[in-house]
């Protein structure tokens, strides 16, 4: 692994233990951000939804928010839910929650009340923060929960508003790198949310690994249009506040708008998912050359096909830097910025990450042999909250559930499949069991199965097969609008006579995937 780290860094790694200590130095996110603010206080830090703050202003706003949370009794150890739509008050609230010594669960703003209620329950949130229209769904999710708005206009929805201008600054809560910062929610094959405690050290190590590997400097300007409710989008905030650079986060993806902002800001870096590149090529092919001015453009959260990578290179003059990671393990693997970038691979282990491929007997395999990918290192979490879940770890190695092989010549990791049946649509993880459960609650649906179908637009399109009586596919889709966020809803609902299963009842997803009724998307 040290050879891979050296390749990313551009120099030999002589002291791996020292490197790991540097990765988690801070020892907290807010302490590290404060150190940056002292050096780059007058420089632009974040532009979110058109609002720009300097590093010094971000520090002041998060400090005041922390002071008000503490004054209201939400001091160190409080679990806070935050509906994370792309607005500056949401970002400064997130940073204030960390500074107050709290743990935050980021909730997707597109969630339905039912989904929000489940997130609140699983996270154990003692207070929920939101702003704008998202407050309506939050209140509907749990009328008895403690809900606080983030802006003055939120008085329309709630009586309590977190007006940080009225708060007195406080000293940041004392903590260490092992303290939980984010309680993320992810799912296994059951679709049931699993709480993933990510410590300050986990997050610092994950982001610093790519900062070093991608040679980030204070002069860089990063642009993206990814949701900050997810680690991929939130990472831009961390990168900027750790390096003294500037991140521009757009509230939504619009191909023409993204290219316009890229040119206007003269961005040097862009975070994206394959579905974004696909749409840019489809809707703005003549403008794709603008991406050639980027120092680095990345692709993650879903598989980047060789065909798409080559089309991007032809249009822009460079290959995207594909990288790979999980909620539980942070950013783990990346194609090196100085090459070779090999389409069809996710690259080499990032600094601090140890990578192995194992067989069913948990023995480490040689390069060229296919098996399950496992990781360990300071980026990797310690285990799910309230659940030992011994099967997820082999000692201190986390089992990803992804199947891969390390190339014998280049050492690059290539992913060949997933043992966990997650669908990645538009860069967002969707879990079949959750959607199947929602389908079975629709009156008239007798049986259901959900698969991901390859899609040029989404990467994978959520596709549902149902056995139903007295209800049409259109009516089923309408019913799901009340229970599932838009990105979880099936792009197609197909009625069948029966769901194919083995003698022991195991779903035959490969049979469904070959159905002639599937429409291309």
Report helical residue fraction: 25-40%
The overall pLDDT, averaged over residues, is 91
Kindly report the CATH topology of the domain at 423-513.
GMP Synthetase, Chain A, domain 3
How big is the Rg?
23 Å
How many helices does DSSP assign?
Answer: 15
CATH-level-4 superfamily name of the domain at 423-513: ANL, C-terminal domain
What is the CATH class name of the domain at 423-513?
Alpha Beta
Q: Point out poorly predicted stretches.
A: none
Distance between the termini: 40 Å
Q: Strand count, sense and closure of the main sheet?
A: 9 strands, mixed
What proportion strand? 15-25%
CATH architecture of the domain at 423-513: 2-Layer Sandwich
Q: What structural class should be given to the helix and strand makeup?
A: alpha/beta
- How many extended strands? 25
Describe the structure.
- This protein is α/β, with parallel strands linked by helices.
- The protein has a domain at 423-513: GMP Synthetase, Chain A, domain 3, CATH 3.30.300.
- The protein is 30% helix and 25% strand.
- It has helices spanning 2-9, 16-23, 29-40, 55-71, 88-99, 113-123, 134-141, 200-213, 231-243, 255-265, 274-283, 306-316, 432-440, 473-480, 509-513; strands at 44-48, 51-54, 79-83, 103-107, 127-130, 147-149, 180-187, 193-199, 221-224, 246-249, 269-270, 296-299, 321-326, 330-334, 348-349, 354-358, 371-376, 393-394, 397-406, 413-418, 423-425, 428-430, 445-455, 459-468, 492-495.
- The strands form six sheets. It has a nine-stranded mixed beta sheet, with helices on both faces.
- Helix 4 crosses helix 5 and helix 6 (113-123) packs across helix 7 (134-141).
- It starts with a helix and ends in an 8-residue tail after the last helix.
């Amino acid at each position: 692994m040290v050879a891979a780290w050296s390749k990313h860094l551009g120099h030999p790694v002589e002291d791996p233990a020292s490197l790991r200590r540097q990765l988690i130095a801070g020892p907290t996110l807010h302490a590290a951000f404060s150190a940056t603010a002292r050096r780059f206080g007058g420089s632009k830090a974040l532009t979110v939804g058109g609002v720009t703050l300097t590093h010094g202003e971000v520090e002041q706003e998060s400090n005041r928010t922390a002071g008000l949370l503490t004054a209201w009794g939400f001091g160190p150890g409080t679990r806070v839910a935050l509906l994370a739509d792309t607005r500056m008050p949401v970002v400064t609230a997130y940073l204030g929650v960390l500074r107050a010594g709290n743990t935050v669960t980021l909730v997707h703003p597109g969630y339905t009340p039912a989904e929000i209620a489940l997130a609140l329950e699983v996270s154990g949130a003692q207070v929920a923060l939101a702003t704008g229209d998202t407050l309506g769904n939050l209140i509907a999710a749990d009328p008895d929960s403690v809900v606080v708005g983030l802006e003055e206009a939120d008085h329309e929805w709630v009586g309590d508003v977190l007006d940080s201008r009225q708060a007195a600054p406080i000293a940041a809560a004392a903590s260490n790198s092992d303290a939980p910062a984010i309680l993320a929610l992810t799912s296994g094959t059951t679709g049931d949310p699993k709480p993933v405690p990510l410590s300050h050290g986990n997050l610092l190590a994950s982001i610093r690994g790519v900062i070093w590997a991608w040679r980030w400097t204070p002069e860089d300007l990063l642009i993206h249009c990814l949701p900050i409710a997810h680690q991929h989008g939130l990472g831009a905030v961390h990168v900027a506040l750790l390096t003294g650079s500037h991140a521009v986060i757009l509230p939504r993806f619009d191909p023409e708008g993204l290219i316009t902002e890229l040119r206007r800001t003269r961005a040097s870096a862009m975070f994206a998912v394959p579905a974004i590149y696909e749409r840019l090529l489809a809707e703005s092919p003549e403008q794709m050359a603008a991406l050639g001015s980027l120092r680095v453009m990345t692709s993650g959260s879903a598989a980047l096909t060789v065909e798409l990578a080559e089309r991007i290179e032809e249009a822009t003059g460079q290959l995207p830097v594909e990288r790979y990671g999980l909620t539980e393990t942070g950013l783990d693997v990346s194609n090196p910025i100085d090459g070779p970038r090999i389409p069809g691979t996710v690259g080499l282990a990032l600094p601090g990450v140890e990578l192995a491929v194992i067989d069913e007997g948990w023995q480490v395999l040689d390069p060229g042999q296919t098996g399950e990918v496992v990781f360990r290192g300071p980026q990797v979490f310690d285990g799910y909250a309230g659940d030992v879940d011994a099967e997820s770890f082999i000692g201190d190695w986390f089992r990803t559930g992804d199947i891969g092989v390390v190339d014998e010549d280049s050492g690059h990791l290539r992913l060949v499949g997933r043992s966990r049946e997650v669908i990645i649509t538009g860069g967002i993880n969707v879990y079949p069991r959750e959607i199947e459960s929602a389908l079975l609650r629709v009156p008239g649906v007798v049986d259901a199965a959900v698969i991901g179908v390859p899609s040029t637009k989404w990467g994978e399109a959520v596709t549902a097969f149902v056995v139903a009586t007295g209800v049409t596919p259109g009516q089923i889709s309408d019913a799901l609008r009340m229970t599932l966020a838009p990105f979880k809803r099936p792009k197609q609902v197909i009625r069948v006579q029966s769901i194919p299963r083995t003698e022991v009842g195991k779903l035959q997803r490969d049979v469904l995937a070959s159905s002639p009724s599937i429409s291309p998307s």
